[in-house]
Amino acid sequence: MNMIMHTNHQSTEINDLALLGLMQLISPALPIGAFAWSQGLESALELGWVRNEQDIGQWLEGVLDDGLSRCELPALARLQNCWAEGDNNGLAYWNDWLHANRETAELSDEDTRLGLALMRLLTSLDLQPQTKQGHALLPEEPGYVTVFAWVAHQRLVPVRQSLLGFAWGWLENQLSVACKAMPLGHTAAQRLTEQLRPKLVDAVEAALALPDQQLGAILPGLALASAQHETQYSRLFRS
């Protein structure tokens, strides 16, 4: 499968309601439990791989460059296009592709649980994906990125802004982990936000330019940290 990104069918401008819908989707107040996961960062702190503000910035920049820009973000763009085009095969393919790229049980469990939690919330809001003939169908065991793509499509959020919003939500979550798991103050977290904001844009640009055959995260350190976290004796975040 070789689905190079085409986003001309969507405006690159975002209207007010779509913007508010995106803000709701990436809000830390969204009740899906994303705050409970550290994505390996807690173990990186415990192991001494990340020890201070500078280390955290380098760790997060590395995850952006070799992880999100090569995995979640390009997959999100493809999934949102599949929802828009009613492409059931594409939805199943990219949903399964993401599951196959989760290198630890913890990362796989997080993706599945957040996807199911977001689906329960959408059902309570009557925003769940349609199942009528002619509409794309939700894959079995939909992951978080797949459901996120549905909401972005349903809210008429342009693909580029969907990716920016997803990356912003990830950054806020990771900085929240750092603030809880180590002595990183909120002012330091804001400094890191300022440092990494341009990197989010770079990651989205890279994600939109990558062809299918170049996708796939290159994060052995994060995978090792996540695997270590599964058996870490003392931890604040879920495993």
If you had to describe this structure to a student in words, what would you say it looks like?
This is Urease accessory protein UreF. Belongs to the UreF family. Keywords: Chaperone, Cytoplasm, Nickel insertion. Pfam families: UreF (PF01730). The protein is an all-alpha fold and 239 residues long. The protein has 10 helices and no strands. The chain has helices at residues 16-26, 41-46, 53-66, 72-85, 88-100, 105-124, 144-154, 159-181, 186-209, 220-229.
Features:
mainly alpha; 239 residues; Urease accessory protein UreF; globular; disordered N terminus; 0% strand
User: Which sequence of SSEs, written as H and E, runs from N to C?
Assistant: HHHHHHHHHH
- Beta-strand residue percentage: under 5%
Largest sheet: none
Strands, total number: 0
Overall tally of domains: 1
Q: What best-fitting shape do the alpha-carbon axes yield?
A: globular
Beginning-to-end CA distance, first to last residue = 33 Å
Residues in helices, as a percent range: 55-70%
Supply Rg: 17 Å
Indicate the CATH architecture. Orthogonal Bundle
GO molecular function, one term: nickel cation binding
Function: Required for maturation of urease via the functional incorporation of the urease nickel metallocenter.
Main location: cytoplasm
Protein name: Urease accessory protein UreF
